[in-house]
Amino acid sequence: MAGNDAPDAGIDAPPFTGHVLHVVEAGLAARWGPMLRQTLWALAESGLRTALLTNDADLIEGLHTTGVECHQTAHLTGWRGWRLRQILPGRFDPPPDAVHLWGTAGLSWVQRWADRAGIPLLIHALGMKAVERVLRRGLRNNQSLAVATDTLAAPLLQRFPAAARRCQTLPPAVALPFHSYQARAGPHTLGVLCVSHLDDTSGLDILLDAVAQLRRGDCDLQVVVIGDGPGAGTLWQSIRERKVNDCCVVIDEPKLWEKGLAGADVCVVPDCQRELWLAPLLAMGLGKLVIASRDQLADWFIEGRTAWQFTPGSAVELAYLLTRAREQPKHVRETTESAGEYFHEHHSIGGLVEKLITLYGATVSGGAS
Predict the structure, then answer these.
(1) In what order do the strands lie in the sheet with 121-125?
(2) In the chain, which ranges are E strands?
(3) Angle at CA 311, nearest 5°, toward 269 and 315?
């Protein structure tokens, strides 16, 4: 799509070194925490004056020793978000050169302030909720768009074809830990991690049906489902109905997926992930096998290269792939090595930071308007 390079950046233009305010809601921070922490830190290290406004205390704690100016507020969404009309002009005077809104939480209040202060606004879509909200509200002259994948960009470009120069695809990125995780050799309990919205019963039921099928065949596996949303109780009921409560665990604390990924052999994405998570992408980088349905929005799910994929809705195919993951270590290794190469080629944190800096400069200078 238009936008693999920032619009009208100018080869000889000096690097942008202004002031950018990042606005991040806690739910999005839970799904993308490592990327957000690393990106903000790297932006500050590059010389940008980088500020953060969030309702996530853990995100602020993770940036405690960096040069990021952190500001906490109780709410960004709902009726309590009205406090932003006082917080934004009160804490950011003079105003920043640009605002980077990750997702669309707080958009109404941030937009009013940006209009009054003459600040360009970059809206970053990491899922369909943000795309759908922009489609409903329209695209203003002082707004630019960043999207995680071309699939998310497609409906925006169809609705706003004249704004193609203001819509950039920025693949997500994250730096890997210094230590690497080695695949466990020999017979062992297969560790399966699913990171999901817990209310998404259709996808999780597919996973549970596959697990029940495997358990009837005495397959030794342990499944951990980590996610957000109030659906944990319903999910536990589904687990008991399928009599797989001896090998399934549900954790309704989404931020724990980072720890859960460390001990997993396989990361499963059982249906279309409309709100993207960093977990499967990081799994690819860490050498974990990813098994996903074929209807994903994210273009980093590539059959045979970065993931094994199955027909959407087919618990039978998912069970078969989990069996392969246990019984065919050579094929697992081939895929995980290929996925690691793809990850390093397309999802480096340095590349993302460079693109963001260029995009901020173009946005502030009017190149994206």
Answers:
(1) 69-72, 49-54, 19-24, 98-102, 121-125, 143-147, 167-169
(2) 19-24, 49-54, 69-72, 98-102, 121-125, 143-147, 167-169, 190-197, 221-228, 248-251, 266-269, 289-293, 308-310
(3) 70
Query: What is the sign, positive or negative, of the torsion defined by CA atoms of 341, 342, 346, 347?
Result: negative
Q: Copy the structure tokens of residue 25.
A: 């809601």
Q: Across-strand partners of 310?
A: 293
221/211 Cα distance (integer angstroms): 8
Per the CB < 8 A criterion, the answer to whether 308 and 324 are in contact is yes
pTM of the model: 0.92
Residue in 303, 285, 28, 270 with CA at minimum distance from that of residue 148: 28
Cβ proximity of 126 and 172 under 8 Å = yes
Q: What is the pLDDT of residues 329-353, one digit of tens each?
A: 999 999 999 999 999 999 999 999 9
pLDDT in tens, 235-265: 999 999 999 999 999 999 999 999 999 999 9
Helix (H) or strand (E) holding 318: helix 315-327
Give the Å distances, CA to CA, from 217 to 98, 188, 220, 329.
57, 16, 9, 20
Closest to 172 (Cα-Cα) out of 285, 57, 306, 54: 285
Helices (H), 20-175: 26-45, 57-62, 84-91, 107-117, 128-137, 150-159
Q: What is the 3-state secondary structure (H, E, C) of 127-146?
A: EHHHHHHHHHHCCCCCEEEE
Percent helix, strand, coil in the chain, to 5, is 45, 20, 35
